[in-house]
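Escalation from tier 1.

The customer reports that the assembly of three entities below gives different structure tokens on two consecutive runs. Tier 1 could not reproduce it. I'm attaching the input and our single run for tier 2 to review.
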Amino acid sequence: MRKPCCEKTEITKGAWSKQEDQKLVDYIQKHGEGCWNSLPKAAGLRRCGKSCRLRWINYLRPDLKRGSFGEDEEDLIIRLHALLGNRWSLIAGRLPGRTDNEVKNYWNSHIRKKLVKMGTTTTTSTALDPKKPSHHRDNKVPLLMQPDARNPILFRPPATTLDQKRAPNHDDEVDVSDSMSINGGNQLQTGVIMSNKSCCLPDLNLDLTLSLQLAVGETQQSDI
DNA sequence: AATCAAACCAACCGCACTATG
DNA sequence: CCATAGTGCGGTTGGTTTGAT
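Tier 1 run:
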């Protein structure tokens, strides 16, 4: 059995105070992100490193947008979710200033209900097989989205600093306004960071009601 | 005004992946 | 190769807020 990430004793849990936030922000501004395990001690916080990381990523990061989601963002989330399933970090990576937690919460509290009401989806929180434990990752990625050069969208890591660190192969990323065709004509300027590789590939058609089925068909055929 | 239910969202938990020794 | 630490991700929980009665 794996050891817990931190000792249960002397660890504060629950809501963060302003003082704690300030300590965390000050520390990260001075020393940068990373080394989350040693950060709490160094920053004078009685928190688990994971908790610090989460607080920073989901709440304190200066580039966060906060506030309610726009229609464009909602539309994009719906389309990306149809493509990616519950890969919230990937989805959030295409929504500048949004976090995976925020997107996930928004999906579960707003969009999912909306779609169910419209009869568009019967999605549960575990997108693919609700019976199987959710942490079985091999079950999370739809067949369509198994790593595959035909799906350039998958090869772009989330646009967070940490993920960029983790994916040195993507340091050739350039800022390109990624335009997607929404609702058969409206151009949605997402302004996300795309890799050179993916921007050279054909425009993504995220009109999922049609292309997803087609793509699934293609994938299944090619897998045979 | 009080109570209850629903909605929302921050935070936690546990697993998987990756790097390192 | 194996064990372990560090980190990231997705699902879930629980406290708070809002709305309905």
